[in-house]
Each structure stands twice: as structure tokens, then as C-alpha cells.
């Protein structure tokens, strides 16, 4: 219509004159010219619009991932499904071991990530004969589900009317006794499934990573499978031979642009970075600062700053930064030498089960060198299943016997594994060096080794003050083992070597943010009590920066009290200048520091808490103070909690039980928060 309107308004107004023709020659010429131009424009405008010519309708729609595990199990002839809630990869590893076990009992299993499937289908599992759901559930943080199990946890909480009466299940929980909420997620899943009508066919297994998680799992598994056989009326096939899950394919003539070089997810994602950044797509953050924090002593404590400019990454004080480290090049080289292989060979390990969602154990195609550097954990002592699978390659009968013994559930075997592998801190390189007849094919070794996991650090900065920078505070791990070898922590030694240079080269760290519940109070007027000895100071540097920023904005800020601890004032008093400046300018109301070894009797933060019990009790009981603890879970966090029990009992006129309940209520209300590790 717009074209037609334009056409009529440009026509000249006709003039009526009896003695002249209606249109002059000029009028006719102009009229013809205008009509011609309009037609020409109209025809040319239409040419770029041949919509039917586009081929988009002919391309197939992208395939959607199968979200029905029931249909997948039917299609693949599976009757056992092992779901895993995993943050560091251990629960996933256990799930894979259990799914492989099923073959030895004439059953077929599959490991499954609950995040990838519709968990509402659990009620349909009874459609499959002799079906069983196993749940390997790790607990993360303060009793939380792992990231990949969060949706499943929410579903369990929200669906009170769900009927799971046809579901057979069992749960193995992975946790750590040093934490307040030991195995909370596994216990909840076990209890909740029963409440919804499911049938527990074997007792809940509790794995303790503070003790011997591997032994806990092996002992539970040894009793679990006989119970399965009894429940379903099946027998073990007696086939104890190795079961390969992947097959090797070498790529001698491949285009190297199609080969993974350390990327976590998308090929070339480190060359062309695209937000959003997460665990499958980390951001390569340049290191702008890497300085030693301690003035003396035999340890190396460091402060790093990562530049996140332009990444659109946002973080809050108390969040964690996850980094993806690489293994020590010397260790990788030694592994190649022992096995006598060319580590530059380009390979793929392809899943023999073509229907599996997990096509490869790590990004493929890649080289052995890249796999051993970026993707596989070669520093932790191998678990018993790895020893069992590798034993067949030991040509010395005595060495083979010992490997099989360590992988068994016999008391003698468990003791040998504990002393020879765990207590001696033998990694796979040390085991190959100390068992000269053991020379497995490198592809089978790569199949068996667990994935190298991201490492989490409490962020030591506030985004209010440092919106384009993330700070890390860490101590380098290095120690001598019982065999005389020097073992080095993977991530901390890798970070230590991220030097800042002036020659244009920038050291980078693949990273992403993991959100935390470790948060400053919503009301800035609430007092905060922070207890963080050693590198536990990290999140509180962010808290102090944020409280200072709030004061600068003219906000009323409550009392901010810090309890820090270290060995010697002149050696490892971390961030001494920053802390003392924060106290002098009033951001820190009070700075309390325990130097544990500067006097005859050791003094720790819990001793200072008891010394200041009256002022602490007033802040907690009458002023709504929030308490924060960061650092060692095994000793410090427990001792600090005991100190608060003592204070509540003493000044609150409570019994021990009442004092314990009082602190628990603070936890429930979000006024007693812990960010601890063991």
C-alpha cells in the first residue's frame, strides 16, 4: 500500500483548458518516465525476496538428546541403571564400576547423569523385568547436592504424590566425616525414595573420604552383589576377566585442526572464546599478579590475580573459582618412557556401546600427551579396580598376585593396598616404576585412569572493589613420600609456575565461577565474626573489601571482627598490611591474630575466641551477629565449634545439649556458615 500511495501523490495535477489538449507532450513524457521508474524499482525490489529459494526447510532438524532413560534401557536391553551425583568425578567413577559389574551377573547396566534424563520416569522402571536403580550420591559443601544432582534433589522434594512402589533401589553415599552434614545427600535420597514407596533391596552404603573411601566402597560392593543375586534369583557367571569399555583408533593422517589440545568441551574453544563460561566452557583468564605472601619458612603461600575483563563473568564475595590445572610435564614424559610409546600419536577411544551418551572417556581425537597432561589424573594413588584390571599385564606371577590381592576385599589385601599404595602415596608412575614386569597397553591405562578434575578456591576479593579481577590465595603442596619420592600438588604447583612476564606472553588459567551460599548478611548493619586461619583468610579478604566499600558509600555497617591464625608473625602472617590498614581505618572493628608457634604453648584461634567470650556472646545473642568459618575441617572447624558451644553453655546458662542446639539453630538460620575442606 505504501508504494501505491507514493505513486498517486507524485502524479501532476491535470489542468483543464478548452483550447489545449488534456495532456501536453511534456506531461505524457514525465508521466511515462515516472511510471517506468516505479515499475523498475518495484520489479527490482522483488528480486531479492524469493523466499521459497532458501534451503533452510530442507535441512534436518537438530537431533535432541534422548531424555527417556526407560526407552533407552529398553532399546539397549539394560535392566540396571546407576545414577551418579558427582562433583569431583569419584561418584561417577563408582557408578561406572557398578554398571560394568552387572555383566558378571548376567545383567546389563548403564551409568547415567540425572541431569540428562527425566527423573520422573523412575515410576516406570517396573516396566523392565528384574530392574534396579542404583544411586551413587556425593554430598557437596554444607550438605548440598552436587551441581548435576540439584534438579533431581528438587524433584524429590517437590513431588509428594509420586508413587514409586514398583522401583527397586539402593544407595551408596560419598561424603566426609569431618563435615557437619556427613553424607546428607545420600541419606536423603535413600530415605526419600522409601517414603515414596520404592523398595530398598540393600542397605545404604556410607563412604568416608576422611578415612578410606575406596575400602568403604569395595566392602559395600562385595556384600551388595550377593544381595542382588538373592533378590532377583540370579547367579554370578564366574567370569572375572577384564571388560573393555572403549576401543582404540589411531589417526595417522588426521588434520590437526580437528584434534583436541586440552579444551574441556568445544574444539578450539580456547582459541575463540564465547560466553557464557562454565564447567564445560571455561574462560582463559590472564594472570596479572603472582606474588609470594609469606616472608619466611619452608612453605610457599601465594596470591594470584586473574583478569576477567570482557568475559561477562560475575561473582559475589564468598563464591568459589574453579580452575583446570595440567599435570607436571616431567611426570607425563616419564610415563611415556616407562611404557615405551610415542606420546604424540593421535588417538580416539570410542565407546563399544554405540548407544551410550558418553562416546569417549575424554575429548577425542587427541594425543596421548594431551590426554595425560590435561584430561587424566596421574598423581592420585589409583583405586583398586585399576590395579585389578592392570594385573593381567604383569608378567611376574608374584607381582600379579599382589596386585590382585590388593584389589580384593580380604583383610590381608586391604591392608596391603593401604600400606603399599595409600600410605606410601604411590601414583601410577611410581607403581609402574616399582613393578618392573607391569607394562600395560597405554590405551587401556588411559581408559582406566580417572579424569583430572577442576580445583576450587575461595575467592579472595570482592567484585564491588575488583569487578574485573578474581583473587586466589593458596599454599603450594609438596612433600616427601615414604618411598623417598617428592610428590607435588597438581594445581598449586601449576599455579605457582604461572609467571607474569613483560615480553607480551600472558600466562592464562582456564576458570569458571561456582556460586556459594557463603554470603555476607543481607543487612549490612548485622555484625560479622570471621574465623579464618592460614589460607582460610581468603573469602574474608573479599568480605573486608566489601564492608569497606559499603562504608565508602555512606552505608551504616555493623561490627566486623576478624580472627586469623598462622605459625609465626614474621613468616606467614598473610595480608598483614591489608588487615592492619583495615583495622586502622575502622573497616575491621577488631583484628585478633593467633601466632601458634611464637611462644612455648601453642595458641590457636579457638583460644582467642574463649578469651573474648563476653564480647562475642553479646554480638551473637543480642546483636544478631553472623559467624563465618573458613579453613581446615578436620581439626580447626571442630575446635572452633566446640569453643562456641562452651561460650553458649557458659554465658547463656545452658546445658551442653541446649548449647549444641543453639549453635545448630544459628546454622539453620544462616547465621553460622562454614567454607571448609579436609
Automatic annotation (TrEMBL):
It catalyses: 2 oxidized [cytochrome P450] + NADPH = 2 reduced [cytochrome P450] + NADP(+) + H(+). It is an enzyme of class 1 (oxidoreductase). NADP(+) binds at residues 299, 535, 596-597, 602-606, 639. FMN binds at residues 86-91, 138-141, 174-183, 209. It holds the Pfam family FAD_binding_1. Its EC number is 1.6.2.4. It comes from the Eukaryota. It is found in: Endoplasmic reticulum membrane. In the C-terminal section; belongs to the flavoprotein pyridine nucleotide cytochrome reductase family. Belongs to the NADPH--cytochrome P450 reductase family. This is NADPH--cytochrome P450 reductase. It comes from Myripristis murdjan. The gene is POR.
Amino acid at each position: 500500500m505504501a508504494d501505491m500511495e507514493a505513486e498517486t501523490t507524485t502524479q501532476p495535477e491535470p489542468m483543464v483548458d478548452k483550447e489545449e489538449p488534456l495532456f501536453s507532450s511534456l506531461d505524457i513524457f514525465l508521466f511515462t518516465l515516472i511510471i517506468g521508474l516505479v515499475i523498475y524499482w518495484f520489479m527490482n525490489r522483488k528480486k531479492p525476496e524469493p523466499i521459497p529459494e532458501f534451503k533452510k526447510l530442507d535441512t534436518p532438524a537438530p537431533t535432541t538428546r534422548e531424555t527417556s532413560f526407560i526407552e533407552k534401557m529398553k532399546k539397549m536391553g539394560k535392566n540396571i541403571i546407576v545414577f551418579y551425583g558427582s562433583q569431583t568425578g569419584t561418584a561417577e567413577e563408582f557408578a561406572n564400576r557398578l554398571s560394568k559389574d552387572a555383566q558378571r551377573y548376567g545383567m546389563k547396566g548403564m551409568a547415567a547423569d540425572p541431569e540428562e534424563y527425566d527423573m520422573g520416569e523412575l515410576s516406570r522402571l517396573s516396566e523392565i523385568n528384574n530392574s534396579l536403580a542404583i544411586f551413587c550420591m556425593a554430598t557437596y559443601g554444607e550438605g548440598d547436592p552436587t551441581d548435576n544432582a540439584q534438579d533431581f534433589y528438587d524433584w524429590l522434594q517437590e513431588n509428594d504424590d509420586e508413587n514409586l512402589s514398583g522401583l527397586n533401589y539402593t544407595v551408596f553415599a560419598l561424603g566426609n566425616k569431618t563435615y557437619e552434614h556427613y553424607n546428607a545427600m545420600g541419606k536423603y535420597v535413600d530415605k526419600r525414595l522409601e517414603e515414596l514407596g520404592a523398595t530398598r533391596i540393600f542397605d545404604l552404603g556410607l563412604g568416608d573420604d576422611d578415612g578410606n573411601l575406596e575400602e568403604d566402597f569395595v566392602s559395600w560392593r562385595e556384600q551388595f552383589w550377593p544381595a542382588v543375586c538373592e533378590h532377583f534369583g540370579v547367579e554370578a557367571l564366574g567370569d572375572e576377566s577384564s571388560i573393555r569399555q572403549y576401543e582404540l583408533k589411531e589417526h595417522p593422517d588426521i588434520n590437526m585442526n580437528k584434534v583436541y589440545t586440552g579444551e574441556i568441551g568445544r574444539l578450539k574453544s580456547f582459541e575463540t572464546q564465547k560466553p557464557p563460561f562454565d564447567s564445560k566452557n571455561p574462560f582463559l583468564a590472564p594472570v596479572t599478579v603472582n606474588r609470594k605472601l609469606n616472608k619466611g619458612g619452608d612453605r610457599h603461600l601465594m596470591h594470584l590475580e586473574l583478569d576477567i575483563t570482557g568475559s561477562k563473568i560475575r561473582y559475589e564475595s564468598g563464591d568459589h573459582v574453579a580452575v583446570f590445572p595440567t599435570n607436571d610435564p616431567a611426570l607425563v614424559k616419564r610415563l611415556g618412557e616407562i611404557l615405551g610409546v610415542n606420546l604424540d600419536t593421535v588417538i580416539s577411544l570410542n565407546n563399544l556401546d554405540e548407544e551410550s551418551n558418553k562416546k569417549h572417556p575424554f575429548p577425542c581425537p587427541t594425543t596421548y600427551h594431551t590426554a595425560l597432561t590435561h584430561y587424566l589424573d596421574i598423581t592420585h594413588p589409583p583405586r583398586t579396580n585399576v590395579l585389578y584390571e592392570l594385573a593381567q599385564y604383569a608378567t611376574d606371577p608374584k607381582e600379579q598376585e599382589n596386585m590382585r590381592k590388593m584389589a580384593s576385599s580380604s583383610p590381608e589385601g586391604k591392608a596391603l593396598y593401604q600400606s603399599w599404595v595409600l600410605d606410601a602415596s604411590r601414583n601410577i608412575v611410581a607403581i609402574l616404576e616399582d613393578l618392573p614386569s607391569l607394562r600395560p597397553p597405554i590405551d587401556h591405562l588411559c581408559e582406566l585412569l580417572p579424569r583430572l578434575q577442576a580445583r576450587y578456591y575461595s575467592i579472595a576479593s570482592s567484585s564491588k572493589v575488583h569487578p574485573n579481577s578474581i583473587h586466589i590465595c593458596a599454599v603450594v603442596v609438596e612433600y616427601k613420600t615414604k618411598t623417598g619420592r617428592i610428590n607435588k600438588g597438581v594445581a598449586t604447583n601449576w599455579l605457582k609456575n604461572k609467571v607474569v612476564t613483560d615480553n607480551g606472553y600472558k600466562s592464562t588459567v582456564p576458570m569458571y565461577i561456582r556460586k556459594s551460599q557463603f554470603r555476607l548478611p543481607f543487612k549490612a548493619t548485622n555484625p560479622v565474626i570471621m574465623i579464618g586461619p592460614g589460607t582460610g583468610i581468603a573469602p574474608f579478604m573479599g568480605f573486608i573489601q566489601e564492608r569497606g566499600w559499603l562504608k565508602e558509600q555512606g552505608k551504616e555497617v555493623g561490627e566486623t571482627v576478624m580472627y586469623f591464625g598462622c605459625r609465626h608473625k614474621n613468616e606467614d602472617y598473610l595480608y598483614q598490611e591489608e588487615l592492619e590498614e583495615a583495622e586502622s581505618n575502622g573497616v575491621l572493628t577488631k583484628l585478633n591474630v593467633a601466632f601458634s608457634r611464637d611462644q612455648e604453648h601453642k595458641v590457636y584461634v579457638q583460644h582467642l575466641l574463649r578469651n573474648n567470650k563476653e564480647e562475642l556472646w553479646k554480638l551473637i545473642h543480642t546483636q544478631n551477629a553472623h559467624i563465618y568459618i573458613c579453613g581446615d575441617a578436620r581439626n580447626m572447624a571442630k575446635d572452633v565449634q566446640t569453643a562456641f558451644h562452651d561460650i553458649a553453655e557458659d554465658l547463656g546458662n545452658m546445658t551442653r545439649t541446649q548449647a549444641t542446639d543453639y549453635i545448630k539453630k544459628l546454622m539453620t538460620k544462616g547465621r553460622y556458615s562454614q567454607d571448609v575442606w579436609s
